[in-house]
Amino acid sequence: MSYDISEIIVLIIGIITLLFIKNNYQNIKKLPSFRYFLISFYLVLTGWFLSILEGFFLHRTLNMLEHTFYALSSISLAIWCYRVFVRGRV
Amino acid sequence: MKAVSLIDLIAAISTTLAIIFLFYGDQKRNLSKGNTRVVLSILILTLIHDAGNILEWGGITDYFDRYLEEPFKIVLSTLWLFFLIISLRDMEIANHNRTKKILNMNIKNLRKMIELTYDFISTTDPERLYRKITQISRDLLELDFTILFLLSEDKEALLVKDSLGFPELKKDSLDTVNENNLCSYVVMNKKPAIVVDYTKENRFQPPEIVKQKGIVSAICAPMILEEKVFGVLVGYTKKTRRFKNYEIALYQAFANEAAIAIKNALHIQELNKEKAHTRALLEAIPDLIFKLSKDGTFLSYKPSQQIQLYVPEEEFLGRNISEVLPADIAKKTIRAIKESLEHKRPSMFNYSLQIEGRLRHFESTIVPFSDNEVVAIVKNVTEWIATQEELKKHKTDLETIVEKRTSELKKRLQEIELLNRGMLNLLEDLQIANKKLRETTKQLEESNRELEAFAYSVSHDLRAPLRAMQGFSEALLEDYSDRLDEMGIEYARRIKEAAERMDNLILDLLTYSRITRTEIRAQPIDLGGIINEVLESLKDYIEEKGAVIEVANNLPKVRATHSIALQIFTNLISNAIKFSKPELPPHIKIYSETQKGNKVRIYVQDNGIGIPQEHHERIFRIFERLHGVETYPGTGIGLAIVKRGAEKVGGSVGLESEPGIGSKFWVDMIRWNKEGAFNEDPGSDYTFG
Question: Beta-strand (E) ranges in B532-627?
Fold first, then answer.
């Protein structure tokens, strides 16, 4: 039953980023293959949120889920990089 | 523990791949350099984070988890936010630059369009305008070739109006709209189209001329006017060119601008024509035309060569009519102007003016021109009025003359009526006299016939006592010559000869009478056969006289009767033998000659004693003789028979003769053909067998 203050900071920064995305969605849409990028961010944000939750209950399960989301986020980011830097999708 | 380690491994591999894509991808321009660095930082931190997790779960070290993970997460989350902020800033800068570029381009294009518009407005000659449009459209997009088409009135064809780079294209040559080509496509879709590479184009076939010129790319815009396609502007390049959107828009705007300019130029051309036509019409009108304001002020005028102005131009232009013309005329004019403007219809009035000492009459028509202006058309009717008066006078004179003549005519008619009555009486008398004449003629014909019958009968009956006289005189000479003295014998001989002459005379008279009475039934008579028959009958006489007779080979067939033809040529040939020179044997030629119409002339020519000119007519009369019976025996009827016979068959006779040289008797007869009509065949003139 413990959490680290840095995790709260990360979560706050993540929420600020989320709000930023919401407010500038029309412009962010103009980023190449923006969907993959945003999915990657949402997944990593979910991972960060799960790392706080694991301190309170279901430590092992949520920890595993946290790492799974990080992995999925990395995959999505790899796809985004492929589309942007290799295929040149605009 | 192993599962979590595997997940982190997958995450690490994915992150590594992302880093590889970032480093080795060739499309880095899609992100700004700053942004790319931020992404790289995120990826590296993520990779380290994943590596730390793997190490921790693998039981190697938990250093990363204990000391570095949380700060890493803070940095990582900050980088995500940072990335988005930089991206937005880059986008704004890019947008700004693009907007600025487009704005500059638009300003440039706008300036160009304004210049073009000014240029177009100042060009009213369509031909010059077409050339300007092709030149400007070529320069506008730096094209190699340009063609300007206008749609035909029936919208079925595109007519070439001008072109650059296609000297072989003639003005107004056709390009059918329904064909599968770029221009037709643009006309039908009413929007611009481009071809990047004709070799890869599937929508339509390139025209032959495009292939010949080695054209690769094309841009084509419809010239739209009032939402209808007016024409097409097409440009070509030899190099491959992907026309940008703003270039296409500019080309389309230019095409629309050109359409307006062309339409205006064509309108101006039409207006100029109309203007020239109107001016010519006005010039042709001999009347004076004034433009007046509502209150009667002279605004302008058209002079007339036939009508002299009442006052010089400078004394009436800009002044009111009441200051120029006499008060009564001015009043009439103002009233007519008012009436014309009020009822919007022409108003007319007449007036007279003393110009150069002569009274002139005018007819003025006021026509509304606008709400405040009218046009006055002034016609000089002086001559017309004079003519009318002259005509009126002539009419009165004419009526008097007609009245006088009518009474004279009535008188004449009465006289004619009287004359007519007299004529009718005369006609009746004439008819009675004519009737009497016809009866007398009939009686005469009857008595003639009786006389001829009598003559025939007498002639016939006379031959019986003659034969008795001949017989008895011959008996006296044969049986009693020994008992008669010389005087008796001589008397008997003379009685015999006289009887013989008398018999011959009676025979000839009978022949003459028979020819006169014979009813003619036309039939074809072969003259060759007739001549042969005559020669055969005169064989002894010919031999006795030693006569040489030449007959033309194929004498024609004529319309006659056998007996008459035989009689005619027997008499002519025997005469030719008889009237020969004593010292020279007769030489006779018989031949024919075609005459005008349906006649043929048969000649009997001899070398005899000839006949003096003064006797040529006489010899054809009955009982006419030129020589004594002792010298040339005969009855004096032979040629009369020839004449009567020829006339009986519709012909005539005549002669050409010279005393001492010979005579040439001719008979004209009607030529026979199968139908009984005349024949154009000239026969065998002058050909002797």
Answer: 548-551, 557-560, 587-594, 599-605
